[in-house]
User: What shape does this take?
Amino acid sequence: MKVVELRAEQGRAIVAGVPLGGGTDGRTWGLPPDLVEALQEWARIAASTPVGAGGPDPATDAVSRRGRRLAARLSVELAAPVDYQDPVTGFRVALRAVTRTPHPPPMPVLPARNGEAGTGDTPAVAVDGTPLTPDAVAAEPTPWGVGLLLTALVAGVVLLANLALAAPLIIGLGVIGLLVDAAVVAGLVPALWLNRRVPTWRWAVYGTFVGTGIALVFLAVAAFR
Assistant: This one.
């Protein structure tokens, strides 16, 4: 994907090496008029703002922050990554992850007990009386149907694979073969345990535990016969 450069030069905003604006010596790139005007105003202010060599200057800091925000919006409007050259520091800031929603939506106000506002010392509660937190409000519902289906599928595959691989050991070595299979399974437990709370993967982990447990039961019965 082509990277678009934004910089301010002699009081004009330069987008992809071309002065921003109408006329024969510039173009607007199909940007909204308010963004074009804001970029041109930012470039004029940047040209008239002296960059001092001393400590932090509120005026130059404001120009730098304004340029970053405009570069982020430019990336959104052009649907392309933007390299923003800061007129204050001269550094290039790469904006690579800007999408149509550059900021997360505001957190909804938590309802309080008895319909009161969710402010102050009164804790917000759900319908069932449990306390509400921002994390609880923003959390997605648990996909029990798809998750349990994935768990069942993984459990079946693991069960068949374990039986197919360990059955020759049980037939040839008996209890020793069962111990070998148990040792192999035990080596996988730590890695599986670390993923037990990872979305999507947790269902596969549950299925692996279930399938392995059932397989060990069948193998134990076969080994002690």
About this structure: The mean pLDDT is 77. Residues 4-95 form one domain. The chain has two domains: 4-95, 144-223.
